[in-house]
Amino acid sequence: MQAMLRDPKVQLALLLLPGVGYLLVFFGGPLVSALIGSLRLDDSSFTLQWYERIFTRATMLRGLKTSIYYGVAPVFVSLVVSVPLALLIRQSFWGRKLFNGLYKLPMAVPGIIVALMVIILAERGGFIDRVIAPFGLSLPKLVRDEWGIGVILASVWKQIPFMTLIITSAFAGIPEDIRHAARSLGASRLSTFVFVEVPLAMPGITAAILLTFIGSMGSYAIPDIVGPPSPRPLSVLMIFEFNEGRFAQVYAMGMVLSLFAVAVLLAYYALTANIGVSRTKGDE
Amino acid sequence: MSELEISNITKDYGATRALHPVSVNVEQGEFVTILGPSGCGKSTLLRILMGIARPSAGEIRLAGARIDPLPPEARDIAMVFQSYALFPHMSVGKNLAFGLRMKNVPKPERARRIEHALEICNLTGLVERMPRQLSGGQQQRVALARAIVMQPQLLLFDEPLSNLDAKLRDTLRQELVDLHRRIGATSIYVTHDQAEAMAMSDRIVVMDGGRVVEVGTPLDLYRAPTRAFTAGFLGQTNLITADADGDRARLPWGQIVVLSAPAKGTVRVSVRPETIAIQQDEAGVGTVTSVSFMGAHALYTVGIAGTTLKVSQAGTESLIAAGNRVSLAFNGPLHLLVERKLQEAA
Amino acid sequence: MTARLLAIAALALSATTAPVHSAETNLKNLDFDISKVTRENFYDIVVPAAKAEGTVTMYNFAGSFGDAWKELITRFEAKYGIKVEYSDVKGAQANQQLIAVQKAGEDAPVDAYFAGGGDYPLLSSAGVVGNVPLTTILPNMNNYDPALAQSLFGKPHGGAYPLVHLNQTAIGYDSAFVKPGDLPKTFDELLAWAEKNPMRLGVTLPSKGGSGGGFIYSVALNYLTGECRTTLTDYTLTAEQATDWAMASECLEPVWDYYRKLLGVAELTNGNADTLNLINNQQLYMGTVWEDQVMTFIRDKQLPETFRLTLLENGQVGSGDAFFIPANAKHVASALLLIDMAIGKDFQAWKLENKASRSPRTDLSSDLITPETAKYLLPANVYPRLSAPAFWDMSKALGEALDEKVLSQ
Ligand SMILES: Nc1ncnc2c1ncn2[C@@H]1O[C@H](COP(=O)(O)OP(=O)(O)OP(=O)(O)O)[C@@H](O)[C@H]1O
Ligand SMILES: [Mg+2]
Hints:
- The complex is a heterotrimer.
- Chain A is mainly alpha-helical.
- Chain A has helices at residues 2-6, 8-38, 49-56, 58-90, 96-102, 111-122, 127-132, 149-172, 176-184, 189-218, 221-226, 234-243, 247-278.
- Chain A is 75% helix and 0% strand.
- In chain A, helix 8 (149-172) packs across helix 10 (189-218) and helix 12 (234-243) runs antiparallel to helix 13 (247-278).
- Chain B is elongated and about 80 Å long.
- In chain C, strands 1, 2, 3, 6, 7, 8, 9, 10, 11 and 12 form a 10-stranded mixed sheet that branches. A two-stranded antiparallel sheet of chain C has the order 4-5.
- By secondary structure, chain C is of the alpha/beta class.
- Chain C is globular.
- Chain C folds into 2 domains: 25-166 and 321-367, Periplasmic binding protein-like II (D-Maltodextrin-Binding Protein, domain 2), CATH 3.40.190.10; 168-317 and 379-407, Periplasmic binding protein-like II (D-Maltodextrin-Binding Protein, domain 2, 3-Layer(aba) Sandwich).
- Chain C starts with a helix and ends with a helix.
- The interface between A and B is medium-sized, with 26 and 31 residues.
- Bound molecules: adenosine-5'-triphosphate (ATP) and magnesium ion.
- The site of magnesium ion has 3 residues of chain B, from helix 1.
């Protein structure tokens, strides 16, 4: 036993155990059991029927597309807001400290609360509508609308702080001298931003994109409450199937969603591997 | 009219004044060093010249035209940063091309200039490298090449050698001097290293506490500083209080010396250790308290009339041991210091 | 508690399934002969036995019913001096708990369980439901609706699983916007009204709310005939069979057709409350609703006072929830008394007045409720005449098929 413990291979295995073991137990375990569960009929015989349903049922296929849509669209909108916001926060302006604290608040608000807020505020005939009605204005249809604008806006509202936070720190990580160097070499503010700052902040930006994408693709409460009754994203359909007790179907849908997320993650690694080569501090 | 005229530039950060009115003129092709202790405002002045910081008051003219209201990119000035500030996501070649691209220099011209800059900075063969694949010295040369490839009217250096080890610093310092001789660009070089300043500069601007203390050639400033600060900052010196009357003065121990200019009353003089001749003399008024042999010269500490003087003796064959009495002689007239409390100025 | 449940679950897994449906009674803990109990001698036999028990445990699965049961319990304890241990439970969990206990042969943790009307097939097949002909022996069930007395949603229960609360899906509308002459009376008229008033009718998505599930089944009941209708109302179908039929059958073409037209001009909503909220916001004027939920919303001022209800010819789905005594209940006599009081005329009237909870009693005339409440209930000319029995498995199947055949196309 003692001798065995001194074997470097055994030692290595023991050293790796906490990390690898953790992954196996808390990530691999559930994944494998979900995979097995998704391939079984009630009588434990093998089946692909649950996957077949996902890829043949119109509801499911639209659900998959909708999940991707609800994942991608908010990311783009958030990005358009977060990047300028990150730049603004860098500047000094009156009330900046207060703003800096406040803009992060939505992060702490659970999705379901956001969804209910949207219903109360932005529903037609809801709070905002009643406030602006005297001015002859009315809100467009944001709740249950065909394009899921309400879902996207609610996700965006929730994502922006997180995204801004990451992007702000990505920009803050760029040494000031590098910006100044660009200016001294004749680059305008805009050129400096486009050619120097954005490329250098790219790892942070892509990480923010990835995390918010996966987050909003899996979110349930917002599309369930704010989104149109049809199409429903896979996450909402999953809860429905769960309530119906079709666990194998839930597992299969979970596997498909996870697979998609992993594919995106791999694409991210491939993409940032390139950026990563060029991204290191200048003064190492 | 000078190439660069800095007139009464001040800079306030809130309540703290980083620059009191500073005025400096730099001639075409001149290599001027700004020398001063940490925090004296050297970088602030440089950043104002570059346009990265705005002056609180004053004006700057480059080749006769006012540049202080212009943004950095509109000034024909390039800068070499202390941190190199290379673009980490661009190869050496792209780093060099960046400024030329921004200033819309045509492509063939660009290639020609880059090649030239690489050559004079000893960087040929490294065009494809990324900055993190370069040594510190190579990175600094890239930063230099990136600045000179712009062929600016004015080149600024902010302590470019301070991150390098001593040996590399000496090599690069020499390279810089040679380079300046070849391209002849008007340059302002910031450092807190007096040896560097003296070795490289046509003129030195000595700064302290946000003010210009004194301006002059290295030789003048070393030999005949008019301020105690300059005297102390540029090498070792002895500050002695004397009683002047006309062009003669009496030192505290009674010795009479010749002054470089007539004066009256209590004055201070700066005497470099190597301008004092030391001689063993049982009747002398000084006593050697310590001696260190440095090879090329010996450094004595001499106690005399309640003060201590440093005396350097070159090319001696024998040393005077501590405890021996000595007499001192002053070669040539002594230089008076202008007494002025720095805080009162301007 | 968890450990105990685990132990029960483990036992349940190892024990062989006990035989269910014994011919006579399957009640385990009886100290009196229940076969001798009739409506006439009920109180003579049961009251002393119940008082000897001294306590009774009750489960309630319906979140919105807490205050109603509180009212009942107060009355019960005052009248009999028997303590009621009351718990709110999640239906699905409590069902599983009872099934596990039953399999383990242990005493049931509950004596009187208010459970979902649709749970009977599951509970009875596991042998959980005590075989007591409540509808024939409880004195207060002498006016019980004969249609519900022996079977429920097509499944015979012999009186052991009597509904004590009925709820009704309906069409709700804001009478401030819908004139009496314009009020649709049939499904065709409803479609015509929606076409005339685009996006003013709210239809709950079936999979997101019972008012929508009830509505789609009602539409099918209205448009299907002959063999198609026979399958539609065949309560022997399993959920899976119903789904297969709904996905594949040509029979349902008229239903899909109806929905295609309707959803072009109506708003599909995310739930019962969603529909009501839109009506309250005056964005919708009419929608698919539950009668009892409307009453709750009116009482909470979440619907305008001009809100009214109606039913369409040839009927809309009504459902209900039942009281039963588990086979292994420990306090059977007290449970009998409690259920008897729950179906009593007084409490049923209170429930109707306060919760718009309909009753399976046939003698609950409208003069028992205040006019203030009556105007928010379904009018007597449509209810109960146009109430059709629910078939939830089929409703669900239709809802899923709707998603597939209409919404996703
Ligand atoms: N952004 C700023 N805000 C406030 N004070 C500043 C700022 N930048 C510089 N200062 C102050 O101005 C003074 C001059 O700073 P500066 O950077 O010019 O010094 P320096 O001579 O370059 O010193 P070093 O040799 O250490 O680089 C210092 O006292 C510094 O603290
Ligand atoms: Mg500095």
